[in-house]
Every structure is written in structure tokens, then in C-alpha cells.
Input
Amino acid sequence: MADNNFIPYHRPQISASEMEALSQDYYEKMDERRSLRMFSDKPVSRKVIENIILTAGTAPSGAHKQPWTFVAVGDSEIKKQIRIAAEKEEYTNYNGRMSDEWLDDLRPFGTDWEKPFLEIAPWLIIVFRKIYDVEEGQKKNNYYVNESVGLASGFLLSAIHNAGLVSLTHTPSPMNFLREILKRPDNERPFLLIPVGYAPENAEVPDLSRKKLEEISYFF
Output
């Protein structure tokens, strides 16, 4: 056994029927989650965002390095800077950088290079992955960084939905402008840009269906 300190782990045992009910309830709740490109400017308290980020921070990570940083932006001027920079990249994407096949696949969603939600949403959460850490001037390795940050991002989206809010996983590419605008250190790279807020009364989403269980799973 390693020399780490260990503490007891306790979790109340529940019956099989309770477990099935809980898992069904959670699935039905998460099945209501949708990505939105329409947001209300209704304010969301900082405390809610803090709790959402804390929840994301409970995700597992390689060697418990927790190689993530969540930058929450509510400042209107910074959001404006982010929108201008993101739209510059997106205009290039939609006008030559993306393949015809990619553009055809996006057409049913009605997306284009304009991203007004980046200013309208009360908060933007930018997820950064930490390629390495720095301790006392020395580089320290992080492990399974993409996997770890991906898991934390999933926890983040679940927490946003659980709080009664909506979000969008926005990935303007390349995203280096986020590191520059937000003055992040050299060891951090932008991973996701997530607007967070309330859905407006006139919100609409594409009429989609999710794959069935037998299409996404195998049991042995």
C-alpha cells in the first residue's frame, strides 16, 4: 500500500428499487437538457456559478492533478471582446476553413458566424486545460489532461442543467484568443467556451432525437 493517507468512505446503501427509480429520474431530467444558442439577459447570481464550478471540480482526474481552470466572465466589456474575437475566427471558418460536408452537416441547425449570445448570456464559463503545473518555478507533469478536463466539463454541463439554466458548448477554432483576452498563463489552453444563463421565452431548439439504448451500448 502506498504511503498516502486514507480515510473511510461511507455512502448509505439503498434498495434496488430505489436505485432504479433514482437512475430513471436522473435520466429523464438530463434528457431534457439541450444546447441553446438563444439566451435571456436575466442575471444569474455569482453564487450559483460558484456552486456549478465547484461541482465540476469534483470530477476524477489523472493522479488527482485536477488539471483545469474555470474562468467565469460576467463583465460586459470582456464578453464583448470575446464575441468580437470569436466571430472573427468563425467568419473565417464559415467562409473557407470548413469543408462543404461540415457546412452541410451544420445547415439543419441554422448556425452561422454571428454569435450574439456571447454578449447576451449573463455568464461565460471558459474551461482551460492545464498542460502542466508550476510549483516553486518547476514544471510538474499532469496526466490524462484531455480526459480529465472532458470529464469535468461533463460534470459542469450537468450542474448547469440541474440549476435550471441552459448552456452551449461553443468551440470557436482556434481559441488562443481566449488565453490572450483573459491573460491566462502559458501552461493553460482553452478547451471549451460555455455561455450560461436562462432560456428566453421565445427559445427554440432543433427537432432532434437521441440515439436509442441499443444504438449506443452493448451488454455482455
Notes: The chain is about 40% helix and 15% strand. The helical segments are 16-30, 46-56, 76-97, 100-106, 117-120, 145-162, 176-181, 213-216. The longest helix spans residues 76-97. Residues 212 and 218 are 12 Å apart (CA to CA).
